[in-house]
């Protein structure tokens, strides 16, 4: 859930910007925001998250609230998922699509109370998502409020995440944090700050995301750094976040997902609920339903697959996937890479790519055109990495 790099001279800054500068972070434009790319090295930050913990600033993400008696019904009509079926205190991955079924953004929807939902959108897409939710919920008794500017978001990810967050949590809330299920949330006091704690993340590790008022973000960030340092926590930037999510096979908006893609091409058809019904039991229409229903019945023109490199040269986004030829020759193009990098955890290159169905089976031997040479790759299941 993120966007490509952009011109940093036009970017907004998060409430933690001065903290990143003080820590010596390299900064880059990303989704309209000036964000830390790395603090020390990509490899060190990646390994810290896998072995101990990393601290991320995610304050560029959008937080859009829907409140009112028909908030769930409004989201059912606006998104591909069945938001009204989410239990209070739980969350669900979803998408907002156009009339033709194309993905406008992928989202996480939290149900905070019976009549209160929080939709978290990718940074560059957040204004559009907020506007679409306002328009799509006009016929429902709900109020849509974009609270992105007043909300900061920090994430603690890694095997030590629970211990770090629990060590700063008020005594009355510690058990809530420790017993929290994956894709669940609850209010809690952490480092003396009232926050919403969610057990979600984008790294393939256990971890928490903490929604905090923007004016309290610096204190929380500093407290988490101090509490986490003895346990191996380090601040981590976008570069490590990208390599971590790639190993975990998680899609990135602008790469695996965009307005030329439906959820089905991306292997995410499970999030589309074509059989939603309203309170009266009648079939519930939602934006993009007809196109997605037709797409669900048709053969795909392309399939998203995982690729494991058999050499050492990595594939990168935009490279052609080709038939494997003899002696390093580049064969016919059968797809393109959407994300690719060396895997610090696994020790070989990994990539995600869209390819034609005929070559999408596990074990298919393909190649990627890396500067004119066909580097060997093989199709493997996603994700590449699963935590123990």
TrEMBL record:
Binding site for substrate: 209
Aminomethyltransferase C-terminal domain: residues covered: 302-386
GO cellular component labels: cytosol; glycine cleavage complex
Subunit structure, interactors included: The glycine cleavage system is composed of four proteins: P, T, L and H.
Name of the protein: Aminomethyltransferase
Catalysis: reaction(s): N(6)-[(R)-S(8)-aminomethyldihydrolipoyl]-L-lysyl-[protein] + (6S)-5,6,7,8-tetrahydrofolate = N(6)-[(R)-dihydrolipoyl]-L-lysyl-[protein] + (6R)-5,10-methylene-5,6,7,8-tetrahydrofolate + NH4(+)
Any GO BP annotation: methylation
NCBIfam families: gcvT, PRK00389.1
PANTHER family with a match to the protein in the record: AMINOMETHYLTRANSFERASE, AMINOMETHYLTRANSFERASE, MITOCHONDRIAL
Domain of life: Bacteria
Residue ranges constituting the GCVT N-terminal domain according to the UniProt record: 16-276
Top enzyme class: transferase
